[in-house]
Amino acid sequence: MKLKQAIIFSVAILAGGACLAQSDVKEDFKPSTLNQPGQLYPQVNSQGYARFRIVAPYADSVKVSLGLGGRGGTKLTKTGDSVWTGTTEGPMDEGFHYYHLTVDGGTFNDPGTLNFYGSTRWESGIEIPAHDQDFYALKDVPHGNVQQILFPSKSTSTSRRAFVYTPPGYEKDKSKKYPVLYLQHGWGEDETAWSNQGHANLIMDNLIAEGKIKPFIIVMTYGMTNELKWGHLKEFKVDSFQTVLVDELIPYVDANFRTISDRAHRAMAGLSMGGFETHSITLNKPDVFSYYGLLSGGIYTPEELGGKTKPKLIFISCGSRENPDRVNDAAAKLKDAGFNVVSFVSQNTAHEFQTWRRSLHELAPLLFKD
Amino acid sequence: MKLKQAIIFSVAILAGGACLAQSDVKEDFKPSTLNQPGQLYPQVNSQGYARFRIVAPYADSVKVSLGLGGRGGTKLTKTGDSVWTGTTEGPMDEGFHYYHLTVDGGTFNDPGTLNFYGSTRWESGIEIPAHDQDFYALKDVPHGNVQQILFPSKSTSTSRRAFVYTPPGYEKDKSKKYPVLYLQHGWGEDETAWSNQGHANLIMDNLIAEGKIKPFIIVMTYGMTNELKWGHLKEFKVDSFQTVLVDELIPYVDANFRTISDRAHRAMAGLSMGGFETHSITLNKPDVFSYYGLLSGGIYTPEELGGKTKPKLIFISCGSRENPDRVNDAAAKLKDAGFNVVSFVSQNTAHEFQTWRRSLHELAPLLFKD
C-alpha cells in the first residue's frame, strides 16, 4: 500500500498549491455542452477553466489528462466520501478538447461526457465556449442532412463507411447538381470527427443561411489511420487510401448523389494527417481535384506543384500555437510563383479542432467560386 | 483501508469458486465484434461466455455489470501487476448486451469496447454471436443510407434530430415513392439505438437483397425518455412526443423525402417504452398509421381498438424469457375479434436487442403488402 499512500500524499500537496493559484477563478461554472443528458459535470466557467467531478468511492488516485501545458493534466482530490473534484490550473484554449481519466492507474472515460473518436479510441470530450462559437451553433435555419453511406470497396474487400453532408434543399430541387469537398480527419480519428467534433454540417448550414457560400456536398470517410503509429507519419503510404478515395468512393458518390462530377467542382482538404493525405493525393492526381486545403497538415512548395495541372486554389492554415510562420512563408512563396493561395492562422489555438472549425469556415466561401 | 481489504478478500473467494465451475469453458475466445479498433478485450467464446480484461494497476476492486442472473455481474481478479481479468460464470444470451464497469466503486465504461446509448447514458456494449446473426450481417449487397436530419420543432423550440433509413436505389430512381415506418427506441435509449444496437439498416438491406420485402423508409427519432425515471412508466404522458411525431416530424419527412404520405403507407412500431408510445399514439391517431408494432412493449385489447379505424396489421412480440403467454393470449383475443394480428416470440432471449432485431426481421415483410 506504500505506493498508494505516496500518491495520495502528492495529490494533496499539488492540490493545495493549485487552490492558492485559483483564488481568481470565477465561480460561474456551467455544465459543458458536450455532457451526456442530465450530467452536471464536467463544467466550464466564463474564463475557460474546466472543473471535473468523478464518483469513485474507493479509488486512491483520479487524474484528468486535460490541463495546462498538456502533459501534467489535472489531479483531482477527494472532497467527500465518494467524490473526486478538481479544476484546471488555468483557462483552457477555446473550443473542443479530448481527454480521459486515469483512475488508480487505469485509463477510463469521464462518465459525464459524450465520447469522440480520437487517438484511435473513443475519448471524453469537453467544449470551452469560444468567443466566435456562433458560426458553428445550432440555429433556427434550414439544415442539411448528414448521411451514413456504405460503399463497396473491392480493394479492401469490404463495404466501407462514409458520411455525406447534403445541403438544405437537396431533397427538394431534384434537378440541381452540386460540387463536392472530400474532407479528411486526422491521425487517430475517423469519419465521424468532422461532424461530431467539427460541426462541419452546422458550419455549412449557417454559411448557406447567411448567403456566404454556394451550397456544396461534403464527403468524409476513414483515412485508414490505425495502420500507423503516432510519431511515424513519415512512413505513411497513401496508396491504399488513394485507391479507396479516387477509384471507389468518388465514382460511388458521383453515381449516387447529384454531383457535378468534374475536376473544376471537386475539392480535397484534410486536417493534420488528413492534410498529408490531401497533399500526396492532390499531387498524385492533379486532374481529379482543383481546390486543395491543408489544415495543420503541412504545406505545398512551388517545386512539387511545377509542371502539373494548376489548382484553382491552395488553402493552408494552422493555429497560432502551431507554426504559423511556416504556413505564411509557404503561402508567400506560392503566391510569388503565381499560385492562387490563401493562408489562415487561427488565433490562440493549437493543434485542435477549434483551429479546424475556423479553417473550414474560412475555406468554404473560397471553394467553387466560378 | 479495512473496507478495501474486505473487498479484495471477497473477490478472491468468489473468483476461486468461479474458476472451479468454469472447467468446461472452451478456450476459443475471440474479441467481441463491438470492440474499438485494435482492442483485444472483451472476448467471447463459442459457448457465449464473455471474458474481460481491464488495466487498473492500483485499483482494489473491478467488477463488470454483465453476468448470469443480471444483478451480480462478474467480479474480476487481479492476474498481474496491472491487469484484472474475469469470465462470466456461464454463457450469456445471444446478441447485444449493455454493461459497465465498477472500478473502486465508480461507474466507468470498458475502454475496450464501443459505447451505446442505453439507461440514459453511453454504456459499453458486447456482442454474443447468435446462430442467426446472418440476417443482420454486413454483406456485399446494395446498401441503403442512414441519414441524420435536424427537423424544426416549434412545440419544443428547437431543431430535433432523427435518423432516416432510405433503401438502396433511393437516390437513383428519382420518381419512386416509398412507405414509411416510424420506429421507436426504448427507455433510456435514443434515436441512435435502432441503427447502432439494432442494425435496422442492415436487416433492411439484407431483406431487400433477398427480395423478401418491398423497400420502405424507416424514421427513428428521440422519444424524450429522459423526462421519465425507470419504474415510473405508468406516469409517462405521450402528449408532447405525439405532437413532435405527428405534427412536426411526419410533415417534415413527407415534405423532404419521397414518401407515400397516406395512412395506408405509414406504420409505427417501438420497443419497450417505444411500444407504449406506439400503443398510445396509434390509438389516439388511428387515421395516421395503419400498421402497428409492439416489440416487448405491451399489447392491444379488442376493447380499446373498438369503434376506431381498423389497423391493417397488429404485430406483437417479445422474448421467450419475458412474458410470451401474455403476447400469445393477446394475439388470440385480437384474432377472435377479427383483427389481422401476428405474434412472434424470440427464442431464448430476454428484454434485449436480439429480441428486437428478430422482431423487426419478422415485422418488415408484413408491412405495406398491398
TrEMBL record, chains A, B:
GO terms for molecular function: acyltransferase activity, transferring groups other than amino-acyl groups. InterPro entries: AB_hydrolase_fold, Esterase-like, Ig-like_fold, Ig_E-set, Mycobacterial_A85_antigen. PROSITE patterns: PROKAR_LIPOPROTEIN. Pfam families: Esterase (PF00756). The keyword Membrane does not apply. The keyword Signal applies. It comes from the Bacteria. Residues 1-21 form the signal peptide. Keywords: Signal. This is Esterase. It comes from Ilyomonas limi.
